[in-house]
Design brief:
Elements: E1 8-13, E2 16-21, H1 32-47, E3 53-58, E4 63-65, H2 73-77, H3 82-85, E5 100-104, E6 107-109, H4 111-118, E7 121-125, E8 129-131, H5 145-153, H6 155-164, E9 167-169, H7 170-175, E10 181-183, H8 188-201, H9 204-217, H10 222-232, H11 240-250
Parallel strand pairs: 2-3, 3-5, 4-6, 5-7, 6-8, 7-10
Antiparallel strand pairs: 1-2, 8-9
Helix pairs in contact: 4-5, 5-6, 9-10
């Protein structure tokens, strides 16, 4: 790859923003410049009302992201805004308000695994591999791995991965819930775009508020969580968007349900 090639590519596909880490020569490891570009892309996505879904992926087919560029680790920690947004650029951003899908190909390790966990859910190619490989170098998880991974795969699975540094394959990742769909090699992005298009066709406010209620209610006792859900959706039933879709339902419009791959 040319030294002048952008380290992060962004492309609009309808209402979807595709964000691609573009350093395949170093397995899409993230340095300070890459982290800043990821941060910029996330801000564009959050602030653009025409964008409904973001897909995060890696270029080259060999790696989604193999973590921080350890040869340029100082550029990650000293990057302006690193403390607020996370060294890898986006891991501490929690106010996007819209879905992010991870399209995982090849190696998804260390900080790259943390980026994948930052996504709402993950679609992986069968050549994908996952692991906290930074365990070998004494590099900690500081981009949300200790917080998101247990919420996704459960405490035992998370501690197994974090403490052993094991490298697991895509089938293993699917079994423990780290991955939600498996597709053939080099098809993760295309499948993620299909899913993103389906999400983009749904009424947006109800989905976004459901998403908000889920994420904000994770640590609440069930009674408080139910109260929070009611607060989040206090005005949803009065939204013109919902009324419009209910009229379509009454008129016999039945969009086909979303289906996972067979």
């Amino acid at each position: 790859m040319s030294d002048s090639a952008p380290k992060v590519l962004t492309e609009r596909r309808g209402s979807t923003l595709v964000v691609t880490i573009n350093r395949p020569d170093v397995r899409n490891c993230v340095d300070g410049d890459t982290a800043q570009l990821l941060n910029d892309a996330a801000n564009v996505f959050r602030d653009d009302d025409d964008l409904a879904v973001m897909v995060l992926t890696g270029a080259g087919g060999i790696s989604f992201c193999s973590g921080a560029d350890l040869k340029a680790i100082d550029t990650l920690m000293t990057r302006p805004g690193a403390r607020e947004a996370g060294p890898m650029g986006v891991s501490r951003i929690t106010d996007l308000g819209k879905p992010v899908i991870g399209a995982i190909n090849g190696y998804c390790t260390a900080g790259g695994l943390e980026l994948a966990c930052w996504c709402d859910f993950r679609i992986a190619s069968r050549n994908a591999q996952f692991g906290v490989l930074n365990r070998r170098w004494g590099v900690p998880l500081v981009d949300g791995g200790t917080q998101r991974l247990p919420r996704i795969v459960g405490l035992g699975n998370a501690l197994y991965l974090i403490e052993t540094g094991a490298l697991i394959d895509a089938e293993h990742a699917l079994r423990i819930g780290l991955v939600q769909e498996l597709v053939q090699e080099e098809q993760a992005l295309e499948r993620a775009l299909v899913v993103a298009e389906a999400l983009g066709r749904y009424p947006r406010k109800a989905m976004r508020r459901d998403r908000q209620a889920v994420l904000e209610g994770l640590t609440l006792p069930i009674d408080e969580g139910l109260e929070h859900e009611a607060r989040v959706h206090r005005d949803t039933a009065a939204e013109p968007e919902m009324a419009s879709w209910l009229r379509r339902y009454a008129a016999g419009d039945r969009p086909a349900p979303f289906r996972p791959p067979e």
